[in-house]
Amino acid sequence: MLELKACATTARLSHELFSSTLILFFSESCGTAVDVACVLRAGWVASLPWCNLGNVAYDSEGAAIHRERDVMDIKARSVAWKTGGTCSTKVGNRPGNTKKNRYKDVVPYDETRVILSLLQEEGHGDYINANFIRGTDGSHAYIATQGPLPHTLLDFWRLVWEFGITVILMACQETENGRKKCERYWAQEQGPLQTGPFCITLIKEMPVNADIILRTLRVTFQKESRSVHQLQFMSWPDHGVPSNPDHILTMVEEARRLHGAGPEPLLVHCSAGCGRTGVLCAVDYVRQLLLTQTIPPNFNLFDVVLEMRKQRPAAVQTEEQYRFLYHTVAQLFSRTLQNTSPHHQKLKENCAPIGKDSLSLRISPEPSATSRPPGGVLSRSISVPGSQTRTMADTYAVVQKRGAPAGAGRGTRVPSSTDTIIYSQVTPRSQRPVAHTEDATGTTPPGRVPVDLNPPGPDAYEEVTNGPQTGGLGFNLRIGRPKGPRDPPAEWTRVCLAAGIVSTVCGRTIFQGKIYGGQMASSERWPWQASLLFHGSHICGAVLIDKNWVASAAHCFLRSRKPSDYRILLGYNQLGSPTNFSRQMTVNKLILHENYHKFHHQGNDIALIQLHRPVAYSSSIFPACVPENTMKVFQARSCWISGWGMLREDKFLPSPFPLQEAEVSLIDNKECETFFHTSESIGQYNAIKDDMICAGDVKNGKSICLGDTGGPLVCSLNGSWYVVGLGSWSAACLEPISSPNIFTKVSYYSNWIKKKKEETPDADPFSAPADENAPTLVGWRSFNTGTILKPSICRALLSSQVLLLQSIWFQIP
């Protein structure tokens, strides 16, 4: 069983970490001979070194071996840029501007400096000691600036207002070691702060943890008011580092939660706006790479810091800060791993050292002992659950290779001879199915095994053969020693192969923390939210539960059981305004619960939708977790419903059809049932069964409405979002007295979901219809039979018990 550890156990992540499958590489030490357990699945593209972190290895104490050399190299390049004119600072050194610089040796680069235009007509200049720093998408994601001086307070708030800043990260104190480091620019409880035309008022101040304070400020300028959040790290010494990397990650995560998905940059400062500021920007930058799945194959922190140094002088200033940055990023990956599904413990290792000539690994449905086939090639196998048809896209091999001796120059980032890297990936080009076979001869039928390979690069030497094997899923992989002059010092050391084994990350969103009576949801807040289309029109909500499967309510499919009649929309916030992340997916198979409507009305109201092709995850498309049947969902602290349904039964959602959300409370089934025991005329609808769960906000009238059913009720549990319910039925969504909504209880069906997924063959991507563009206009079909069950309830039918419960629970006056 594999075990999660900190950096004492090497771990490597692919940039698909937030995609369909978690890719882990574990070892017991960080040395030259690293044992690697490969956990691979379709979609894996590149590996991210962990303990190496791009040419920086850790010894047993966790110290960076090459940190001193790296910092000296970075500083030397920075000096060369300045003296060579690459990074000019002429504007900041002008006589009228030098007095605005807190430190004479920290002057913003001209090319990336922030230029102020607000209030210029009143005689205020355009200069402030601040630089833009690009984010992962190339936009101005950060503004790095110094702590304001008494005479630059106005310029500071001009910057905040002009660039729409909503979150400020402060990494220093006002005074450190008896020296003034930052003029106080925020208000205190004693009263507002006035600087020029800006009035700043403190709304709230509260600790986030022992090191961080969160202040909420109201800024008023020319009769307009805005909210600005400030996070101040109270214990970060100048030229030093904090004692706890976890608190830095908390600060960055909290900043992104407060910031939302808007385009405005984060404003980051310390005293000089370089060392501590650079660390915060770099940590957030790497975190965004993880969230957006854009970590490059050659990722390393040296290049990240070097690129930031080109935009802001002295970003990540000291060797100690540089080392701390490595530890913090390692902690970021560790925290990410700890938030993954525990199913990784079921993974099996299938690695073996390469023999004298090559190594052959295969995959079979049953485990077998290690054998040595003709030719002296070592052969091993692993077990693949089930015998369903798979494609070779599910199978990968990874080669770990010792690097050539150092000496190619820093620019090429060649690993030293003591480093070990994941060198290459083997991906069969063929997408032909490889089926389980019962051939008694033990020979895979001709045509079942792909003979071609898509080499990952010019330095890879792989050959896939279709030689005899013991039968079952798989292919023979032969990887020989390097040939020719391309990389003669290199040596293959290990090959690992795995398939059909997956550990899924789920329930993560860049936000922590209709629908009738609800509010518009922020972009990317609910990345698992899906729209079910029938002939191009929205009829129900749905929820993504993994890269191939979507869940919804069975009643949404009463019109038709033909998969081709339906489409799934993912990555939408506004149905009328698709983005680059929006996708329209075709449906391969519909699975309605076999007992739907059989034993009681609206019982077993659940359906699974298999997509033709796996969906690529992003910050806009990501699955919710499916709770186990033993999970205590009533312990959840926060539960939300979301959807694109009607605002009322007589009012459609207006264009561009924004996603609606509402926070609700879970209600015990017995208490919930009292809302529906009103008369025999609706008695056929009123039974709240064990496979149902109730939720709502009766006081504020937040409920699901027409078009919301089938969509998710999600609750935050153990740091992840779980789809606790699927919208099933409710009373009319605009009654004189509101009642709870009834959802299909997903945990009740967790075993059914697993069983159906396991016994359903993988979709054949070649049978899918041609790719379709995400629609720019989504219609609404009339919501009639099969969309929602809504027993009518009138105030006159409500019992005194219900009215009393409402007045007690929800304080209705």
TrEMBL record:
GO cellular component, one term: cytoplasm
Enzyme class: hydrolase
Keyword terms: Cytoplasm, Disulfide bond, Hydrolase, Phosphoprotein, Protein phosphatase
GO molecular function, a single term: serine-type endopeptidase activity
Stretch list, region Disordered: 363-389, 427-451
E.C. number: 3.1.3.48
Chief subcellular location: cytoplasm
Domain Peptidase S1: residue ranges: 515-758
Protein family per UniProt: Belongs to the protein-tyrosine phosphatase family. Non-receptor class 4 subfamily.
Protein name according to UniProt: protein-tyrosine-phosphatase
Source organism of the structure: Microtus ochrogaster
